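Listing S7. Sequence submitted for prediction.
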Amino acid sequence: EMCIRDRGDYIVKADGQEVLGQIGEYEGRKWMYVVASLAEGEAIQYSVSRGRPARGKSLVSLKSSGDIHELSNGRFAVKIPAKASGGRILSPILAVRGSNGRWVGSGFWQTRRTLKKFTTEVLGTGPVFAKMRLTYEFEGNAGLNDNVPAFATVDITVYPDQQHAVIEESHEMDRGDYWEFDCASGWNARRAICVTHGKMPAHGGRAIPAPTLLRVDQTRMGDTLVNLQPRWTQAFDEGWLFVCHDDRNAVGAIPCRAARWHWPHNNLIEVKVKPSADYAGLRCPTWKGRRYWFLVGGTRDQWDEQTAKQYVTRHAFVPLDKLLHDYILDWPGLE
């Protein structure tokens, strides 16, 4: 990414060769986004100049059809609502498409508040990323002093060659409000992979086995398999990975970027199951705060614990944009 001061057409070159570029915003500043992969010790020299770029093939797409927007990179896709549907409050995520090529999943809202206004905003259409912002405005005020208009905002981004969508949320509503996405809806997922932050109870004893099925009473939390949250504790009830699967394909969630979470313990993603053993709900509380996570899909083997760790390291711990924005990489006097 390179800082851009104003709008217009730009030509981006990497080591003298024109490459795809797209202007995006990060913390109030405009940046030029590019796609790059660097080996250890490798360097790429970029330049940005005014001009009309060559027409290259976009690495992502954002398509609209009726009441639906579809964000895709060819490997992973997500459907989101384009407008309100009568008196219904539509889930931010309507369905996902992963490695099996099928649209699966369904969602809903749980709140006593009346939706006053629902809007969508296009923040990126390619060629480097596709991004939408959904804003729900509810009747009445919320907040500690009841002086903030009740709202929930959800940003959804798809980047090239990744098996996930980035979900960034902020909200101020009521205790007990949430939206929920059933990852198992529309297909035969009946099994689970759950990876927790800790495996031993505080008082010692045997390790706590992780749930492997979409059944109730596998944990002390009854209908909750795991609470997803970046690593704030060693709790064996809380974890960093959940997917449901049918032994071939998988859909689920990874919480990440702990600094992007406000009121983290009030924003745990609760993984809910039912006695029917065919439900895998990602329950996303919207009482207060912020949350950042990946909605993931792909083959089941991609989400084994060790393989998933490599994926999270690459895309959440040390992606190039995070290293650029959030780390001090140059220190005077040191090499």
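Caption to Listing S7: primary sequence and predicted structure tokens for the chain studied. The chain has a mean pLDDT of 92. The radius of gyration is 21 Å.
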